[in-house]
Design a protein that fits this description.
By secondary structure, the chain is α/β, with parallel strands linked by helices. The protein folds into two domains: about 230 residues, Carbon-nitrogen hydrolase (Nitrilase/N-carbamoyl-D-aminoacid amidohydrolase, 4-Layer Sandwich), CATH 3.60.110; about 60 residues, 2-Layer Sandwich (Alpha-Beta Plaits), CATH 3.30.70. It is about 30% helix and about 25% strand. A six-stranded mixed beta sheet has the order 5-4-3-2-1-12, with helices on one face. The protein has a six-stranded mixed beta sheet with strand order 6-7-8-9-10-11, with helices on one face. The protein has a three-stranded antiparallel beta sheet with strand order 13-15-14. Strand 14 and strand 15 form a beta hairpin. Helix 2 packs parallel to helix 3.
């Protein structure tokens, strides 16, 4: 059984915060986080460069305000025992005006577990905001699974999303200034991981590994919140759909099974620590989607070797 993770991801609509200074945004963020304290979230996600959400883009005190904001977020992470994804500007060492568009990943102890620096910056970031692009796609191990990040314009470069999958990410957090649209669902389905978006509009989302949104924000309440399990596994129906009833009959509410007709797949989520996914696969002879494709690829290559194409 994987750890059930309560995720709270915010959409902070700029229309409602227009004209606020960065100093005035700080208490807005703190109050938003306090609003979900009672749900005991494991992960809180905030939008890209949220301190400038009111339009105060070049506040000369941005370094001081950012440092204060991070101090407060570290305090809340420690107090609430949760992870917080905090996208703010990070000063570029040795420069007075250069910076990174950075996500600070704060752990349950209030420590910075790591950073992701936006790789693909837009024209305005380079020419006006003086943002230096990053170059790496790090992943971070948490007590509920491996996490990676993408930021806004990164959505247009497929290789970054695949790089995170290749590194074993089971959840990718996308922070942005806009909604993102169906590319987020596509990346989730293609890479078979969860995607959580936090945006400077109202449409934050939590998308599962089949590409379906399981929680969404709305104009009057931008919060997307859901409990997810990153050990949920995906299976093709070939040679396996007959086993679904067997698993249900034996395990009952110890598992959650969801089947999808159009894609010919189903998912299995464990609800019992005595029945983790590897044990379920072993005892019921299940082969996950990745392994099924790997098996098919090996067989195809063998046949090509034995029977080369002929005109």
């Amino acid at each position: 059984m994987g750890k059930k993770v309560m995720v709270a991801s915010f959409g902070l609509n700029e229309d409602f915060l227009r004209g606020r200074t960065q100093e005035e945004i700080v208490p807005v963020i703190l109050r938003k986080i306090e609003s979900v304290r009672g749900y005991q979230p494991d992960l809180i996600v905030l939008p890209e460069a949220f301190l400038k959400i009111g339009g105060d883009k070049l506040n000369p005190r941005w370094r001081e305000i950012t440092e204060h904001m991070l101090t407060e977020l570290r305090r809340l992470a420690r107090d609430m025992s949760c992870y917080i994804a905090a996208p703010v500007y990070e000063p570029y060492s040795g420069s007075g005006d250069l910076r990174y568009n950075c996500v600070y990943f704060i752990d349950r102890a209030g420590e910075v577990a790591g950073k992701y620096r936006k790789v693909h910056t837009v024209y305005e970031e380079s020419t006006v905001s003086r943002v230096v692009p990053g170059s790496e796609y790090p992943v971070f191990d948490t007590d509920f699974g491996r996490v990676g990040f993408q930021t806004c314009f990164d959505i247009g470069w497929r290789e970054g999303w695949k790089a995170l999958a290749d590194k074993g990410a089971r959840l990718v957090i996308w922070t942005a200034a806009y909604d993102g649209g169906n590319l987020l669902n596509t990346y989730a389905a293609y890479n078979m991981y969860y995607v959580v978006s936090s945006v400077r509009t109202d449409h934050a989302q939590i998308i599962d590994l089949t590409g379906r949104a399981i929680a969404e924000g709305a104009r009057w309440n931008g919060l997307a919140m859901a409990a997810i399990d990153l050990e949920t596994e995906l299976y093709h129906i070939d040679r396996q759909y007959q086993k679904i009833d067997d698993i249900r009959e034996e395990l009952g509410k110890k598992v959650t099974i969801r089947a999808y007709s159009e894609e010919n797949v189903f998912t299995v989520e464990s609800n019992d620590p005595e029945w983790p996914i590897p044990r379920i696969e072993r005892e019921f002879g299940l082969m996950n989607y990745r392994d099924y494709h790997a098996e098919a690829t090996r067989l195809q290559n063998e046949w090509r070797a034995n029977y080369p194409e002929k005109d």
